[in-house]
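We give its fold:
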Amino acid sequence: MLEIRDLHIYYGGIHAVKGISLSIPRGRIVTMVGANGAGKSSTVRAISGIVKAQGEIIYTREENGPSVNVLGLPSEDIVRLGIVQSPEGRRILPQLTVEENLRLGAYIRNDKEGVASDLDWVYSLFPRLRERAWQNGGTLSGGEQQMLAVGRALMSRPDLLMLDEPSLGLAPILVGEIFEIIRHINGLGKTVLLIEQNAFAALSIAHYAYILETGTVALEGQGMDLLHNPQVKEAYLGG
């Protein structure tokens, strides 16, 4: 579905991503794990068209369909192709209601009946959002705001859903809940690219994983294999 080839990202004189290559197969959960500054979020922003990069990002929306290099395309065009990001820090609009935030996720769509149906579907995934539909987003707890950010991304009907640090700042019980929802969304046929510092949670649900260190891919493999890898345990799982 998505192939990143020899991706380089610079911020002035800083070489933040140094020629990484990775693959995201259709229907799978792929995770990028690493510490702050490893290049995870920069990679996602390049896929979304938010930061400039060098290399290739080849996207094939439909199986056996045409491929396109999305690198350099406007962000709105990338969303229309079916690639959607739920950003780090949630970035909801606190002065708007829960439902208004969700409907913003469907801004590229003009199928009113489909939007209404998907809104009901998102509420079924996140019942607490239905209960708080007319509350301002800023009044929600951190976990509820994360659910809102994921729900907003789903409202655009993505084929590839990119989640940037969904567990950031959440209590452990909420982390478990969010990751079960991610697994459920994947089970419904959505391809997921998961960006995480929480290596244990991410590797526990990922089909395939890339460990990033200082802008390079240090390790890669099946999620459960890396979860039991001594090197990963030592660096990310407290031994």
Q: What stands out?
A: The two ends are 34 Å apart (CA to CA).
